[in-house]
From TrEMBL:
Residues 179-269 form the Glycoside hydrolase family 2 immunoglobulin-like beta-sandwich domain. One of its GO terms (biological process) is carbohydrate metabolic process. This is Beta-glucuronidase. Transmembrane segments: none annotated. GO terms for molecular function: beta-glucuronidase activity; carbohydrate binding. It comes from Microlunatus parietis.
Length: 594
């Protein structure tokens, strides 16, 4: 599904702003058939949970409704008219006037509907979108809906971040020509100093396909005809970490004249795993950076361009060259920005919480098996497979994306894990043979217990020695951590990196001793991990958990959210941020030069 773009043949209207809002009525009525009851309004894009002071809305389990009127431009006569939703967390239904036009499950990938036959250029229609944040054992991510002793429905889940719901990204009205470009797939290779750009174009209707490759100045450097082929660029300027040079592949459909055109940004680069090295353009690459979250006050998971710019400025300031989209696909605007600025991305599905052991803490003893007909089952795996398809289809052309992460902290030590994940790993390779695949391994699935590591190209580890294990005893934690990493190295001849490590720190809490929750302890723990990383051969990266503090479900284990950020939720640096900046920006230090 192509990202909305204004071109000579296409127009877009972003429907962001205030929409009418209501919780699904309990009387079984059909609210899309008229104006929503009540006087509530909600911002789009934003999660709805923190917008209102009514706890019945914040904690609502089930459907809510967004509604507004939309006018189709009168100049769109003869065009196809589409409604597109960039994300509906976690399921959505779209109605045009009284008609259901689209349904989608999965909270972080787009969906759209052709509404041409239901609307008229120059006239208005009623657009209603229902959104459900409900999670079950067969959704990605999974969860469970319980009924409390007071008779209230309550959503529980196993991921350690707040289950925000709503319309966190833009909604669009689009026009496309009757015959148009439906999809474009780009691959790149390097032969000496020549860049090779492969392309495959899908069209909705018969037309001659013409492609032209333009450099950053808009000058044409190559051209071809036909729905697929290769373009060769002598003395190509490569996309590199820290230097996001982009060409533009201009795809045109021609029938006497140009009837559709669509531009695709292209970064010429290669990604490869060779032995214990991770290579970009044939050069060893060492990841420095973070797991992040789409999370900010009031907006929840709502995309915000101001936060986008500021967060990337902080990544540059601290010397980070990468991040993981933990634990779901981020807004497309984030990847576009990473493409332009040379930030490397590990792109992750929303498959977090496939581990019932987490319900009992870090004991490794789940009350129920994770993989069974009653828990994580074939229906869950089908939803997971669809999430992989939609992630790769959406993000396949981004040069910043160098690896697909299929899941975070699954119960890979349990029986049934291999039968669940092997088909998914095969699917990801079939969909995109050009990028490595990985998963983030949880602490109690050690190298002797894990059943799936050989299915993946890179071993990503999440470890909390010194925090959840050996808390307050960094000397013992260092011994345990190094022994753990060396066992992984001995068992698998693959690149190994740390995708989560860190400690909670309350900003402003200080001590001269090793006291957990202080800024000093967080910094000392990171120093300990770095000493161990630097002693391990085949180690290819370090991504701290987390970039910034974030909201979690309320409970006794979290006070005002997760405090493992090296920045506060409002993006103020803790002591650990200065430590990382010193390590990552020092001449000859870790990571690619910035």
């Amino acid at each position: 599904m192509l990202k909305p773009r204004d071109t000579a043949t296409r127009e877009t209207i972003k429907l962001d702003g205030l929409w009418r809002f209501a919780v699904d009525p309990a009387d079984g009525s059909e609210p899309w058939r008229g104006a929503l009851a009540g006087d509530l309004e909600a911002a789009v894009p934003a999660s709805y949970n923190d917008l209102f002071v009514d706890p019945a809305i914040r904690d609502h389990v089930g459907w809510v409704w967004y509604q507004r009127t939309v006018r189709v431009p009168r100049g769109w006569t003869g065009e196809r008219v589409l409604v597109r939703v960039d994300a509906a967390t976690h399921a959505g239904r779209v109605y045009v006037d009284d008609a259901l036009v689209a349904e989608h499950s999965g909270g972080y990938t787009p969906f759209q509907a052709d509404v041409t036959e239901l609307v008229r250029p120059g006239e208005e229609f009623r657009l209603s979108i229902a959104v459900s944040g409900e999670l079950t054992n067969t959704t990605i991510p999974p969860g469970r809906v319980e009924t409390t002793a007071a008779g209230r429905r309550r959503q529980t889940y196993l991921h350690d971040f707040y289950n925000y719901a709503g319309l966190p990204r833009s909604v669009w009205l689009l026009s496309v020509p009757p015959v148009h470009v439906e999809d474009v797939t780009v691959t790149t290779a390097i032969e000496g100093t020549t860049g090779v750009v492969g392309f495959a174009v899908e069209t909705d209707g018969p037309a001659e396909v013409r492609v032209r490759l333009l450099d950053a100045d808009g000058d044409q450097v190559a051209e071809a005809a036909g729905p697929s082929g290769e373009l060769r660029v002598p003395e190509a300027v490569l996309w590199r970490p820290g230097a996001g040079y982009l060409y533009t592949l201009l795809v045109e459909l021609v029938d006497d004249a140009v009837i559709d055109s669509y531009p695709v940004p292209v970064g010429i680069r290669t990604v490869e795993v060779r032995g214990t090295e991770f290579l970009i353009n044939g050069d060893p690459f060492y990841f420095t950076g973070f797991g992040k979250h789409e999370d900010s006050a009031v907006r929840g998971k709502g995309h915000d361009d101001a936060y986008l710019v500021h967060d990337f400025q902080l990544l540059d300031w601290i010397g980070a060259n990468s991040f993981r989209t933990s634990h779901y696909p981020y807004a497309e605007e984030v990847l576009d920005f990473a493409d332009r600025h040379g930030i490397v991305v590990i792109d992750e599905t929303a498959a977090v919480g496939l581990n019932l052991a987490m319900g009992g803490g870090l004991t490794g003893r789940p009350p129920l098996p994770t993989f069974s007909p009653e828990t994580i089952n074939d229906e869950t795996r089908a939803a997971h497979a669809q999430a992989i398809r939609e992630l790769i289809n959406r993000d396949k052309n981004h040069p910043s994306v160098v690896m697909w992460c299929l899941t975070n902290e699954p119960a890979s030590q349990e029986d049934g894990a291999r039968a669940y994940f092997e088909p998914l790993a095969t699917l990801a390779r079939e969909l995109d043979p050009t990028r490595p695949i990985t998963y983030a391994n949880v602490m109690f699935a050690g190298p002797d217990q894990d059943q799936i590591a050989d299915l993946f190209d890179v071993i990503c580890l999440n470890r909390y020695h010194g925090w959840y294990v050996a808390n307050g005893d960094l000397a013992s934690a260092e011994v345990k951590l190094e022994a753990d990493l060396r066992r992984w190295v001995e068992r698998h001849g693959k690149p190994i990196m740390m995708t989560e490590y860190g400690a909670d720190a309350m900003p402003g809490l200080h001590s001269v001793w090793d006291v957990p929750w202080t800024e000093e302890y967080q910094a000392d723990l990171l120093r300990m991990y770095h000493r161990v990383f630097d002693r391990i051969d085949g180690f290819v990266g370090e991504q701290v958990w987390n970039f910034a503090d974030f909201r979690t479900a309320p409970g006794i284990h979290r006070v005002d959210g997760n405090k493992k950020g090296v920045f506060t939720r409002s993006r103020d640096p803790k002591a650990a941020a200065h430590l990382l900046r010193e390590r990552w920006t020092a001449p000859g230090g870790r990571g690619a030069p910035r």
